[in-house]
């Protein structure tokens, strides 16, 4: 099948939404799709006098040539005049759910890079064929509206905006664009590996086309379903604005009677959004699990539930959602003066450039609460279960310091005897769903 490369006029129309952002990054695997996107964005930015994008390649360390391929992308990026970073996924043995885990790791690494470099948006090269395959895979699982709406043009991941400008473009045109630009590219063998669901489906696409199930028609259905999803999301936004409350300390609540009285689809979306955001999830909770939780709220209204790394607590007419702290604990991170970091996929932390030493960021926990309430004389101002999962900074001398959460001394009320105002660190909770 002959295909034409994308023209400058087409590219300008497709990439216009990226101009809203001061800087963007591009996810580049080394395949023809992502290299074509990098080439298009780099040329578009030059034409319009915009900053060059950052190219990000994740080495999953799952194949012997993965590093070599990442270094090939680095050479292409250098040729295009754009900065490039190789992000390596450090992992142990990976078996069940390999592709899902690798995908989550890829986005977590890129979100962390973008947070550290002040980049608000990441562009990916998902295209029309990806859209059709995603629709069919989710249809096989009996997905609801959200699943069948497939890949959105714009999404969120840990505070990062995900942009997918090529969803209406067939893969063959991206291959033609990469070839016309003289870009070297590689094919990931796992894409066509029948052991994986997407690879198995690709092997059947020719047979589906003979039945009239062309990728373009399937993607059109997904696009129309996305319109319906957008309307329902707007309803959930309005519901949360009227009946919900959220805290800079990373927890939220909603009036339980109103949640159960709302149209079920609105109630389910509200519940899923709160769990996804408070839990810092990389992937949405399965709809079947949200449905089971929603039903239990009506039949067992006083029972505390757990789902999606969250503790869901009904009390005094409200349903509160807190980050659950398990035995494995929450992550630790090192933060140097002038740096930003993404912590637990929930908080963006920034340490002032005038600080003289790095800090370790960890969960406040019970010992931290005791430090501030007993040693510091402060009074806990948020629910204890919420305070457990807050970030706190530790200096080399062992002293703990709270970042500024945007509301003064939250989550404690003064006085502090030894800890107040001694660290320039800001923490922002990322109130977006996955």
Write the layout of secondary structure elements.
Layout: H1 8-15, E1 24-27, H2 32-47, E2 54-59, H3 66-80, E3 84-88, H4 98-116, E4 121-123, H5 128-140, H6 145-148, E5 154-157, E6 160-163, H7 171-180, H8 197-210, H9 215-243, E7 244-246, E8 252-255, H10 256-261, H11 264-278, H12 287-299, E9 305-307, E10 310-315, E11 318-323, E12 333-335, E13 340-343, E14 347-351, E15 359-363, H13 365-375, E16 379-380, H14 384-388, E17 391-394, E18 400-401, E19 412-413, E20 425-429
Parallel strand pairs: 1-2, 1-4, 2-3, 4-6
Antiparallel strand pairs: 5-6, 7-8, 8-11, 9-10, 10-11, 12-15, 13-14, 14-20, 15-17, 16-19, 17-18
- What is the CATH topology classification name of the largest domain? Rossmann fold
* Strand segment tally: 20
Query: CATH homologous superfamily name of the largest domain?
Result: HUPs
Number of domains: 3
Structural overview:
With 434 residues, the protein is of the alpha+beta class. It folds into three domains: 8-220, Rossmann fold (3-Layer(aba) Sandwich); 247-323, Uridine Diphospho-n-acetylenolpyruvylglucosamine Reductase, domain 3, CATH 3.30.465; 333-429, no CATH class. Helices cover 41% and strands 18% of the residues. The chain has 14 helices and 20 strands. It has helices spanning 8-15, 32-47, 66-80, 98-116, 128-140, 145-148, 171-180, 197-210, 215-243, 256-261, 264-278, 287-299, 365-375, 384-388; strands spanning 24-27, 54-59, 84-88, 121-123, 154-157, 160-163, 244-246, 252-255, 305-307, 310-315, 318-323, 333-335, 340-343, 347-351, 359-363, 379-380, 391-394, 400-401, 412-413, 425-429. A six-stranded mixed beta sheet has the order 3-2-1-4-6-5, with helices on both faces. The protein has a five-stranded antiparallel beta sheet with strand order 7-8-11-10-9. A four-stranded antiparallel beta sheet has the order 12-15-17-18, covered by helices on one side. Strand 10 and strand 11 form a beta hairpin. It is globular. It starts with 7 loop residues before the first helix and ends in a 5-residue tail after the last strand. The mean pLDDT is 89.
